Amino acid sequence: MTVDSAGELAEQLWSAYNAHSETAAARLYSAEGRHRDVAVNRERVGPADIEHGLVGLFTAIPDAHWTCTRLVVGGGAAVLAYELTGHLRTRLGPFEPADQPVRLEGVLVVETDAGRISRTTDYWDSGTLHRQLATTTAP
Questions:
Q1: CB 3.0-4.6 Å disulfide test: which of 17, 78, 133, 138 passes with 10?
Q2: Which CATH number fits domain 6-133: 3.40.50.300, 3.10.450.50, 3.40.190.10, 3.40.50.2000?
């Protein structure tokens, strides 16, 4: 499956996120596709690794919902401003679940090549997330 527009790919990625379909999201990436979370300095390489990362996120925040607040498309890329909301229900890194609410704004840059996602870069504020989840932190 290939898609003609970076905007279409970004919208399909967003839909897969909100459907909590890590498989559908991962299928949008090229074989060498990469996803980088700038706030935690982590990069996932290849659809299987990207899918694995999403499984962890969807498990920790099973009611995660992304709202796209702005989409800008051009030059083979899409830039999405978003708001993520949900509640922490299982451990996420050092954070123990206490049903803490999550409200996190960010920007996702989606780069495309030959009808696939070649790279996504996610920019969000780890300090904001820490303040929201620090209700209960593991030693």
A1: 78
A2: 3.10.450.50
